[in-house]
Each structure stands twice: as C-alpha cells, then as structure tokens.
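Researcher: We're teaching a course module on how sequence relates to structure. For the next exercise, students receive a sequence and then see the predicted structure as tokens, so they can try to spot secondary structure elements on their own. Here is the exercise chain.
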Amino acid sequence: MRRGQASLEYLFMIAVALVIVFIVVSTMSRSARNVPDNQVIIPWVDPVDIPQYNVSDEYFTYYVYVQPVGSNLYNLTYILTAKKDLHNVKVQAILKCEKQPEYIEPEYLYIVQTYQEVPRGWYVSNYWTPIKEDEFPCQVTFNVWVGS
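Model: And here is the predicted structure for the students to work with:
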C-alpha cells in the first residue's frame, strides 16, 4: 500500500457519505414543502339537507353553499376570505361529488391558485360549479400554504 492511500480512500468514503446525506435531506425538505399549512374539509353538502356550511381558522373563513339555478341544476359555490394580511399564499380547492359530474372535466374539479399579496377581507378564491341534483352530495377540500 502506498503512503497516504488509506487516507485518500477514507476521504473518498466520507465524500460519498456526505453526498448521500445531501440527497436525502434535499428530498425530505422538498416533500415537507408539499404538506399544506392548513387543510379544511367541508362536509358533504346538498341542496336539501345541508345547503350551506362555513368554518374559520387562523387565516381564512371558508364558505360553501348551494344555489338553485334551474330545474335540477344548482351552483355549488366555494369561497375563501382572508382574515388578515397575508403573503405568498397558495390555495388548492378540490371538489368531490358522490357522482362525478358528467359534463365537467376532472381537471376543473382540482383548482390551484397562487398569490403574492392577500389583503385582509379579500376573496382569495371564489368558485362556482354547476352540479345536477342527482350528483349531490358534494364535498370541498381546501389545502392552504401561507408563506412568511
């Protein structure tokens, strides 16, 4: 064995271990960023039993309500209102009905919006989706990420 060869091999093993640690830490931190700061699941709503529902948390007030618009057709409206000034907000709204609405593409039931600034009292998201009576009940899940 040459002089210094063992030291060089140990340094190489340490470098490989550091690269592995870096990969693991970067993967875990990327995964942690995908976990929302808050998740609110609005229970199943329908035009007869539960036509509206609202709930609040530290950041927002969440509203979901059903409005008739025609024969056997309703608008399911879901709104978030900011309770204080916020920065770097990402909102994901997911609509799930007992029966998949036949005339709505699945990607329109999954909405993501990002905002740099959200003033207090501002509507962060205001969506409505036409739903037929036989497609109820429906549920809305809000995932919210709030930056510093």
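Model: If you want an answer key for the exercise: Strands lie at 38-45, 52-56, 60-70, 73-82, 86-97, 110-118, 123-132, 138-146. Residues 5-33 form the longest helix (29 residues).
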